[in-house]
Design a protein that fits this description.
By secondary structure, the chain is of the alpha/beta class. The chain has 13 helices and 22 strands. The protein has helices at residues 26-38, 52-63, 77-88, 108-116, 152-161, 180-192, 222-234, 256-261, 297-306, 326-335, 371-377, 381-384, 402-408; strands spanning 5-9, 15-19, 45-46, 69-72, 92-97, 120-123, 132-136, 142-147, 169-174, 197-200, 203-206, 216-217, 237-243, 265-270, 273-278, 285-289, 310-314, 339-345, 348-353, 364-365, 387-390, 412-416.
Length: 418
């Protein structure tokens, strides 16, 4: 329902209870799709993500031909980064473009690295940003440096095509790396499909090789579980069962269950899945570093405001470069709750109650065309009663069945006109 409003009502008794069927990880799905295209033989992917981002990437990969064509990936940032590298090693000429927001999301670090490897990539608009024209060819590989402080997806994009280079790749990470858990995810998946690598300090070496076909089942998405952990934090009591959710070590965001343990939400892992329960009280303040888990920043910030927890955050540097400027979006929405998110300098951000404390009535949250904003705001109904959320359909980017699953644990939703 484009440009609509969704009314979200909490469980009447404030108790959250039920089963949530998490989507499969789109981060894993998108990497495996690229690896399958780079593999000489097809292989089966079980439980592939149904997120819009993954469908966009899959559609683009299925449509690629040898003649020049325009590939529009809309808002899918992962697809933009991964396809830029993939197409640089593919036969043909391509124009890769996206939405207006995508055209202001930087890609220069990746393009510069590809150019240093001998790729042919040309900007069609402002230098450093999409759209780009790519003439694919076989690359020799070798040694390059890359700034690791902007986006781990640039690094993952290069690593996945590296085995096809004649000389492999020696990649030196400069600066302060961000989201290293996603780099580790990429390398672990490459190893699963037969590629050798070494990561020592700031140097990653990928040896020349060929991906080997193996059937893989994509595991549930830990990032998607965070919104329901937030609901438990804000509830009077509750327990949620997540089928198949396990701490495999592949997703960095699984660290959330340790974070929430300190917030009074405990996790019990059994053979069939995970049970998360509210078992204690939350502290009045906490310090967290999101360097490896930037996708949890919105969930945590809004949940903390709902629980009146003040905090010091680090590792938010990449948030302005996401689907929207997530720092600005959070600041706007947190003000509605009577909270401020202020830059304290030296990489620190303070989340604190405004003085005097004040919040808006009849809370209506904007989503900024950002799926994570919509899902992070939803649990707040537990503290503030009925709330409304603009453009609720944005959740299709990563969790198409989010609202349905929110209903499974006791919330009620109703579409209405703006």
């Amino acid at each position: 329902m484009k440009d609509g409003l969704l009314l979200v009502n909490p469980p009447g008794d404030g108790i959250v209870h039920g089963t949530v069927y998490l989507p499969s990880s789109k981060s894993i799905s998108n990497r495996v799709l690229i690896i399958r295209e780079l593999c000489r033989e097809p292989f089966h992917i079980d439980n592939l993500s149904e997120a819009d981002d993954t469908k966009t990437l899959q559609k683009a990969l299925n449509s690629i031909k040898s003649s020049e064509e325009i590939i529009d990936i809309g808002h899918a940032g992962t697809a933009m980064r991964f396809l830029t590298a993939y197409l640089a090693t593919s036969n043909g000429r391509f124009v890769l473009t996206g939405s207006d927001r995508m055209k202001v999301r930087p890609i220069g670090t990746l393009v510069e690295a590809l150019l240093n490897l001998g790729a042919t990539v040309q900007y069609l608009g402002e230098p450093g940003y999409p759209p780009v024209r790519i003439s694919g060819k076989k690359l020799k590989g070798g040694k390059i440096n890359i700034d690791a402080g902007t986006s781990s997806q640039f690094i993952s994009a290069l690593l996945m095509i590296a085995p096809l280079f004649e000389d492999g790749l020696q990649l030196t990470l400069s600066g302060k790396p961000v989201s290293t858990s996603y780099i580790r995810m990429t390398l672990n998946l490459m190893a699963f499909f037969g590629i050798e690598y070494r990561w020592e300090g700031s140097l990653i070496r990928v040896l020349p090789g060929q991906y080997q076909p193996r059937t893989i089942r994509i595991e549930p998405d830990w990032s998607a579980a965070s919104y329901f952990y937030a609901a438990l934090l804000l509830s009077k009591e509750g327990e949620i069962y997540f089928p198949e959710l396990t701490p495999s070590g592949l997703q960095g965001d699984e660290n959330l269950y340790n974070w929430f343990e300190a917030l009074g939400v405990s996790t019990r892992f059994e053979r069939q899945g995970a049970y998360a329960s509210k078992t204690g009280q939350s502290p009045e303040s906490l310090a967290l570093n999101f360097t490896d888990n930037p996708d949890l920043a919105q969930t945590i910030s809004l949940a903390f405001a709902g629980a009146k927890i003040q905090a010091e955050f680090h590792g938010l540097e990449t948030l302005p470069l996401k689907e929207t400027d997530r720092i600005a979006a959070l600041q706007n929405e947190l003000k509605k709750l009577g909270f401020l998110l202020n830059n304290a300098g030296e990489g620190a951000w303070h989340l604190k109650m405004a003085q005097p404390w004040n919040r808006q009535a009849n809370l209506c949250f904007d989503t900024y065309n950002d799926h994570r904003m919509a899902m992070s705001c939803a649990p707040l109904a537990l503290k503030y009663g009925q709330i409304s959320i603009r453009n609720p359909e944005v959740v299709i980017k990563s969790f198409p069945a989010f609202w349905e699953n929110l209903g499974r644990v006791g919330f009620k939703t109703e579409e209405t006109n703006p």
